[in-house]
Amino acid sequence: SLSAGLDLPGKFLFATLTLMTLVAILVFIEEAVYIYKKIPSSKRSIIIWINAAAPVISTTSCIGMWVPRSTMFTDFTAGIFFAIVIHKFLMMMIKECGGQKMLLRRFENGRFTISTGPCCCCCLCLPRVPITRKTLFWLKLGTFQFAVFRPVLIFLSIVLWTNGNYVLYNLSPKGPALWISCFIGALTLFALWAVGIMFRKVRILLKCKNIIPKFALYQFIVILNHLQTTIINIFATQKIIPCAPPLSSTARGSYIAQQLLIMEMFLITVISRVVYRRKYHDLEPPECAAEEPGDKKQPP
Q1: Which percentage of the chain shows pLDDT scores above 70?
Q2: What is the spatial distance between Cα 153 and Cα 83, in angstroms, rounded to a whole number?
Q3: Range of 228's domain?
Q4: 294 domain-assigned
Q5: Which residues are listed as membrane-spanning (predicted)?
Q6: How many domains does one find in the chain?
Q7: 125: DSSP letter
Q8: pLDDT tens-digit map of 146-182
Q9: Is the confidence at residue 88, as pLDDT, over 60?
Q10: Long-range CB contacts (within 8 A, 24+) of 246-255
Q11: What is the pLDDT of residue 168?
Q12: Contacts of 100 (CB under 8 A, 6+ apart)
């Protein structure tokens, strides 16, 4: 075990990061109790799922830090959980608009701008799509497919890994790791694209619900959990991160990624508690919003 051979600063670092993980879990539990008591049942489970993303990633990173051989399982667990959270975030935006029927009434003649990131931000020539029940279905399918197929691909990876056919850092075209990673990457882009299209349409309407800070926190988790970890792993594979016996370059890169994630997810957990704990008023029905300007024009 690596922890048995740690010096005093190393033990202090491990203890501090473990304490931060425990505090993040306690903060989330307290927040979940508050949400369960104060939030309507239609939104309760979705908001709890979204708030759980950072503590779960912090917990899996902490377990991977203490038990290095479990890194593959902990990374895959965090990946599966966050795939579900991406779908839940899209559903939360629909719920905050009053549900699907109310959203369709609010944007009866509106259109979705599909030339947005991360897939089509440069394709400004793409047409704007009418907001209908069918287009909403395709957006929900865009995130739902990720929540379904990523666990299946991760399960396949674990099966191949136990058989010795899957090596995480072996990205040769002959190995399955490269193709599975590329397929998961494509599914991730489509899911994030669907969320981006919906957010671009409802961000003004839901500004009173602090949807912009909530979306920013969600984006930070995506970037830190996926992009940051991928960059560090690439640096470790290319030996840019030097080995430090008894740790190889890849093992050291994994430790650096896990320790950074614990600190970052702790901060996001605390900030999420502030953002989601505020009391927000429900949006007025579309008819009331449409009648208000006319009422003001009428003479007393």
Answers
A1: 84
A2: 12
A3: 2-280
A4: no
A5: 12-34, 46-67, 73-94, 137-161, 176-195, 215-236, 256-276
A6: 1
A7: T
A8: 889 988 888 888 888 887 777 766 666 777 777 888 8
A9: yes
A10: 246/2, 246/5, 247/2, 250/169, 251/68, 254/64, 254/68, 254/71, 255/65, 255/68
A11: 66
A12: 94, 133, 136
